């Protein structure tokens, strides 16, 4: 996953709010980020070793058909390797309240990458809690390459998923047709490369570094989401998700699952957080029960945007214990 430090880049009106998230981008593409160091005493929420990501050779200078074929092969190999699992609560990966606490700290309060000097670099650092205060208004926009039947199916899926995110978080989340603040664009390779002027309309003040990032997205990245704050604080005001139109159905829906939930304020990935969408192996294609608990913790009113681990951890421990029925 890639996320930005909180400072103004080239634009006067829009700041990256601690996170420009390339979460499912890396997770679904098979590009694994090196594991971050686990805190001393941290529990591992897994009963089995994490799977290895699937990697395929990238086609040189691919055309549209080759890109679709590449992602179809990638999905098929992941399924054959036991990845892209669809169990919400897999029996082979139990977790405790302690595991839930550690998972939240690692996913919500750390970041693996940063924008430095206009570049994205790997740098694991502690971060602060970030989330929305205004209602989240998701808006879907499809490129001309996306067939009508797929548009209808994806719109119904995202509408249902937005309602689920609202139910889990207790925060207003909806799919709207206009005046969105969380833009979700489904684009082919050619459409994405030409999307810069449209992004400037949808997210006024968006900076050139972000525009370049979207335009030059490598084939190893399936999808991404970036969240911003216009006040330069830890409160999100805008978000942008890019989903590759060439993805087959399961992989595309896995992108929706991960990017839209991470855009709520769960920006990080970690290989030891399991069972979860939020690691780089594409082990799961759906939001798991653990992920649901992470979202509940994030929007618990006892936590506040800007909290760091030292202040937040005792509260997180209490909430995790309550969610797990007092289990330690």
Features:
two-stranded antiparallel ribbon, alpha/beta, 328 residues, single chain, 36% helix
Percent in strands: 15-25%
Structural class comes to: alpha/beta
Number of strands: 10
Q: Enumerate how many helices there are, as a single number.
A: 10
Shape: globular
Tell me the distance between the termini. 30 Å
Tell me the radius of gyration: 18 Å
Q: Low-confidence parts lasting 5 or more residues at pLDDT below 50?
A: 1-13, 18-46
Mean pLDDT: 85
State the share of residues found in helices, binned by percent.
25-40%
Characterization of this structure:
Helix 3 (97-108) crosses helix 10 (309-323). Helices cover 36% and strands 17% of the residues. The longest helix is centred in the middle third of the chain and has 22 residues, at 148-169. A hairpin with a 2-residue loop joins strand 2 (110-116) and strand 3. The protein has a domain at 15-47 and 69-134 and 201-238 and 249-323. It is globular. By secondary structure, the protein is α/β, with parallel strands linked by helices. The strands form three sheets. A six-stranded mixed beta sheet has the order 1-8-10-7-5-6. A two-stranded antiparallel sheet has the order 2-3. The chain has a two-stranded parallel sheet with strand order 4-9.
